[in-house]
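BUG: 3D viewer hangs when loading the predicted structure for this chain

Environment: internal workstation, default settings.
Expected: structure renders.
Actual: progress bar stalls at 90%.

Input used:
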Amino acid sequence: VFLHVSSDDLRIKKAKLPSVSQYKSKVRRLVRYFRALGVREFGTWNEANHASQPTAGAPARAADFFDVVRAACRACTVVAGDVLDQAGMERYLVRYRAALDSRPAVWGLHNYADTNRFRRGGLRALLRSVDGQVWLTETGGLYRFSRNFPPSQRRQAQAVAYTFRVARSSPRVKRVYLYNWTGAARGARFDAGLVGPDGRPRRAYEVLRRALDVG
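Structure tokens produced before the viewer hung:
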């Protein structure tokens, strides 16, 4: 189990950046609770560099949050970054790394741009910027996303297949977390479901099944 410790989990209004002490007060209880359930892998903030997040303009604070989670569980694997592969990611990581009190063993990347535009620039940029393992902590083929990606099972399946090609392109990529299982209702802005909202498998599901070599 890999658990994101994010703004939603902490019940903090997204528009407001919590202080380190506020974050610490919530995280210590959260980590303690999930450790008792056997969880040993944590993320610290979901897509910290995205404009929707209060950490977007505060990479040093996002780095502080990593240090807080790591201090709360020295025996746990804490994933650093969890950044989105968008413009400015490398500059964000320079400031993020400079503020860290420790050296992360694992970095997280959400490489939707790579996957759905059939390129590898986001992953390559992260590999240049950091040391250690990389986990694709959120990725997947888009069935639908706004006006740029109208509904298409064919394109989505191709993107999921490309996800695995990207992951295999570097021995430092150790894990891939596909998002998500069940598709959104008709008309939703974002839908990356491997099965439709009616439970019927999409072509992308078959790509995953073959990749896992399961019947």
